[in-house]
Amino acid sequence: MPKNTKTEKIILGIDPGTTIMGYGVLRVSGQKANMETMGVIDLRKYGSPYLKLGRIFERVTGLIESYLPDEMAIEAPFFGKNVQSMLKLGRAQGVAIAAAIQRDIPITEYAPLKIKMAITGNGQASKEQVAGMLTKMLHIREEDMLPYMDATDGLAAAYCHFLQMGRPETEHSYKGWKDFIKKNPDKVKGNI
């Protein structure tokens, strides 16, 4: 199936998680964005962390096959006090990124504060405030809202990326492994 024309773009947004992972898909036509879908990947029934990671890879790959995104926006892990939680979240994010890299989808990472700032104008906004702004900006009906804020967080990552389009690349934007290596020669040792 051919890629979308330059006037139309599909953005997949991911809010990484090891219990509930949120996602949202935007269709961008010119300067207008419309929600295609949003949802969650529920990982609570999987006891093993490795089964969870496998399921994340399967589901993100499935989303990519279904919606054929041109780009992926993903929320960066935040730095918290619980190191184990940060490691688990980083693994979940890495697996989602690997699914996109496998399909040569450019990935841009956004800090949670940047996403909240882009959507609400307040980097300290609550999940509810972010969801409320998205419902207004994207004209999402109340009955289409999900009980999990992780879904709107995934959609927020995609919408933040939409708002950044046309601006200079962010510092963590890569088009694949080769692009990462080219932009980070100091982080790569030996020949590949």
Short description:
The chain is α/β, with parallel strands linked by helices and 192 residues long.
3D structure, described in words:
The chain is of the alpha/beta class and 192 residues long. It has six helices and six strands, in the order βββαβαβαααβα. The chain has one domain: 2-Layer Sandwich (Nucleotidyltransferase, domain 5), CATH 3.30.420. Strands 3-2-1-4-5-6 form a six-stranded mixed sheet. The longest helix has 20 residues. The N terminus is likely disordered.
Topology at a glance:
Elements: E1 8-15, E2 20-29, E3 32-42, H1 49-67, E4 71-75, H2 83-102, E5 107-110, H3 112-120, H4 127-137, H5 149-164, E6 173-174, H6 177-183
Helix pairs in contact: 1-2, 3-5, 4-5
Strand fraction equals 15-25%
In total, the number of strands is: 6
Tell me the distance between the termini: 31 Å
* Poorly predicted residue ranges: 1-5
* Secondary-structure class: alpha/beta
CATH architecture: 2-Layer Sandwich
The profile of the biggest β sheet is: 6 strands, mixed
H/E topology pattern? EEEHEHEHHHEH
- Shape summary: globular
Going by CATH, the homologous superfamily would be Ribonuclease H-like superfamily/Ribonuclease H
Strand order of the largest sheet: 3-2-1-4-5-6
CATH class identity: Alpha Beta
As a percent range, the share of helical residues equals: 40-55%
